Structures are given as C-alpha cells and as structure tokens.
Amino acid sequence: MIFHSNLSVRDLFNNIRRKQICLGGNRKLKIYGKLNCNSGKRMKTANRVFFQSESEAIEAGFRPCGHCMKVAYRQWKSAQ
After folding, report:
1. pTM
2. Cα end-to-end span (Å), the chain
3. For residue 15, what pLDDT is reported?
4. What pLDDT sits at residue 39?
5. What's the rounded Cα separation, in Å, for the pair 25 and 70?
6. How far is CA 66 from CA 9, 75, 77, in A?
7. CATH code where residue 64 lies
8. SS3 readout for the chain
9. Range of the domain at 8
10. What is the Cα 33 distance to its own chain's centre?
11. Could you give the number of structural domains in the chain?
C-alpha cells in the first residue's frame, strides 16, 4: 500500500507508467477501484492509497468499488 500523501506528482505518474500503481483506494472507507473511477477522483488526497494489484488490496482488507468494478463488487457482496 502506497499513501498518496507520500508521493510527489512526478513519482505518482512514474509509478503508474511502470505499473507499480494499478488501483486506488480510500483508506478510511476501505474501498479500492480503478484509477479512472469518478468516485475515486473525488476523494481527499489524505485518504487516498494505491495498490499494485487487486490481491494486495484484498489482503489489506479493502473491498471493490461498486461503480467501477461492478462484477467484483457483486462477487464480494454475495460472499458476505
């Protein structure tokens, strides 16, 4: 898990380009989703974290976003 507040803009874009950051999440709500999700774009920088993979986000206790990851969210919801 990488905290957005610990990254400069240049480091953020370099990590995305190198595929070290593939998903974003809200550390308070424990939700992860795609980087282009409109819901994720609205969150505060202080609450934003990044993940390299979906398995990393799940291991950290996060759930899929219901807007940008509908299939994964339905699977998570049915498992609850």
Report:
1. 0.89
2. 24
3. 93
4. 86
5. 15
6. 27, 11, 10
7. 3.40.10.10
8. CEEHHHCCHHHHHHHHHCCCCCEEEECCCCEEEECCCHHHHCCCHHHEEEECCHHHHHHCCCEECCCCCHHHHHHHHHHC
9. 2-79
10. 5
11. 1
Averaged pLDDT, groups of 10, the chain, 80 residues long: 92 94 96 93 93 96 96 94
CA distances from 80 to 50, 76, 77 (A): 24, 7, 5
Q: What pLDDT shows up at residue 40?
A: 85
Among positive and negative, which fits the CA dihedral 67, 68, 74, 76? negative
Task: Check: CB of residue 3 under 8 Å from CB of residue 49.
Answer: yes
